[in-house]
Write a structure and sequence with these properties.
The active site is at residue 206. Keywords: ATP-binding, Nucleotide-binding. GO terms for molecular function: ATP binding. InterPro entries: Fido, Fido-like_dom_sf, Fido_containing. The chain has 400 residues and is mostly helical. The chain has 2 domains: 18-295, Orthogonal Bundle (Fic-like fold), CATH 1.10.3290.10; 298-390, Orthogonal Bundle (Arc Repressor Mutant, subunit A). It is built from 16 helices and 7 strands. The chain has helices at 18-33, 40-61, 68-75, 83-107, 115-126, 169-179, 188-205, 212-226, 237-243, 245-255, 271-295, 298-313, 326-336, 343-349, 353-365, 384-390, and strands spanning 136-138, 143-145, 157-158, 161-162, 338-339, 369-371, 378-380. Strands 5-7-6 form a 3-stranded antiparallel β-sheet, with helices on both faces. Strands 1-2 form a two-stranded antiparallel ribbon. Strands 3-4 form a two-stranded antiparallel ribbon. A hairpin with a 4-residue loop joins strand 1 (136-138) and strand 2. Helix 1 runs parallel beside helix 11, helix 2 (40-61) packs across helix 4 and helix 4 packs parallel to helix 8. The longest helix has 25 residues, at 83-107. The chain is globular, with a radius of gyration of 23 Å. The protein starts with 17 loop residues before the first helix and ends in a 10-residue tail after the last helix. The model has no long low-confidence stretch (mean pLDDT 94).
Length: 400
């Protein structure tokens, strides 16, 4: 048993299917365009916010999402009194922290395809605070305590998919690392096809007793991060998958299909099934890029910031009013990336030193601004409430 073909190819030439390459190139080009209007510091702030969003949607696919506002509270150790809600908060925090750790590791040159890296995803995720609540795994015959990062030692069936025998997993993971190796001569568009194909194949191998869906999407994010798609992180694919979860799961299942005759490739699994899955993933990526492209138009985002401040001060948003001049400072940060405290803030908001210091202090306390120290420059922070109003439909409605 193996998971070939590793990418969908033309039957005659063995090359990647041309239609998929065209779609892939469109993803790469449109993704890069998302960075066009923004300072790198603002781009970093949006990426930080989207990790929280990514956590919500990846967990929502497993029917266990908690609102990004509640995740943000948990990061500040503000937990729900409800035990179930608290556990879901910790699950989301674990996802965010794991994604941050993986991105740092990739930046330092770690190979995302290595078996040890994939095991580390599972280990890092399930070793986070309070994640021991999710280590007990039950099936029809027994209950076991899963060890974070260890490959499964039992056979599993998920819906209609009978995963490979547990004694084949080690070999399949070694094969996975070898077959999906990328080479410098490949274009980013070609690499993207490999990345999306590998997501299904990792789900198909099902290397762990539990958590394979989350781990496979964290792996997908890390692998995408590693291939150098400009603009990646200003959109995330998990939102698109969650919003169309029925088709996501249907396409995963379709790609599980074994080869259907001589016109369906030369591998053990269906070339046609993998082609349909990759096409679905590329179209989902395009949909998310186009959505964020609309959200990130500089002029309209600036207008939404102004509207947010007006609505907050008119008591429409159920939050305390923002200090006068907040909108001017936010819009300046949107353009500049960061501003210095003191005279620069005073000049932007047109207020004296005492008031500007008070404004900065309040906006820092309320997580609208961040800074590396009491004398360091200020940066905008898209906290979950702020982001939910600035980026329409990015998040679910806030609970009443």
């Amino acid at each position: 048993m193996d998971f070939t073909p590793i990418i969908p190819t033309e039957l005659s030439s063995g090359n990647i299917i041309q239609e998929l390459l065209v779609l892939s190139e469109e993803v790469v080009v449109k993704s890069a365009m998302l960075e066009a209007n923004y300072n790198p510091i603002v781009i970093s702030a949006i990426r930080d916010m989207l990790r929280n969003v990514n956590s919500y949607y990846s967990n929502q696919i497993e029917a266990e999402g908690t609102h990004p506002i509640d995740t943000e509270k948990a990061m500040r150790k503000e937990y729900s009194l409800d035990d179930k809600e608290r556990k879901l908060q910790m699950l989301s925090v674990a996802h965010v922290k794991t994604q941050e750790s993986l991105e740092k590791s990739i930046t330092q040159g770690t190979n995302p395809l290595s078996k040890n890296f994939i095991k580390d995803i599972h280990k890092i995720f399930y070793s986070q605070e309070s994640m021991d609540n999710f280590l007990t795994v039950s099936n029809e015959t027994r209950t076991v305590n899963m060890i974070p990062g260890e490959l499964r030692n039992d056979n599993v069936k998920v819906a209609n998919h009978i995963a490979p025998s547990y004694d084949e997993v080690e070999h399949l993971m070694n094969q996975f690392e070898s077959l999906y190796k990328l080479y410098p001569y490949m274009t980013i568009s070609q690499k993207l096809i490999y990345v999306l194909s590998s997501h299904h194949r990792l789900v198909w191998i099902h290397p762990f007793l539990d958590g394979n869906g989350r781990v496979s999407r964290l792996f997908l994010d890390a692998f995408l991060h590693s291939i150098g798609i400009r603009g990646y992180g200003l959109w995330n694919i998990s939102r698109g998958l969650s919003r169309d979860v029925k088709n996501y799961k249907a396409n995963l299942n379709y790609a599980d299909m074994i080869r259907q005759g001589n016109q369906d490739g030369r591998g053990y699994l269906s070339n046609r099934g993998l082609e349909q899955f990759v096409r679905f993933m590329l179209k989902t990526a395009l949909d998310q890029i186009e959505y964020m492209s609309t959200c990130l138009k500089l002029h309209s985002l600036s207008e939404r910031i102004e509207k947010y401040c007006y609505r907050a001060n008119a008591s429409f948003l159920r939050i305390n009013p923002l200090p006068q001049g907040s909108d001017k400072l936010f819009k300046a940060l949107l353009l500049k990336g960061e501003v210095q405290r003191g005279e620069e803030v005073q000049e932007i908001i047109g207020m004296k030193k005492t008031y500007s210091s008070k404004l900065v202090s309040e906006l820092l306390d309320r997580y609208y601004l961040v800074s590396d120290g009491p004398r360091k420059a200020l940066r905008i922070n898209f906290n979950a409430h702020f982001a939910s109003q600035l980026f329409p439909e990015l998040m679910p409605p806030e609970k009443s």
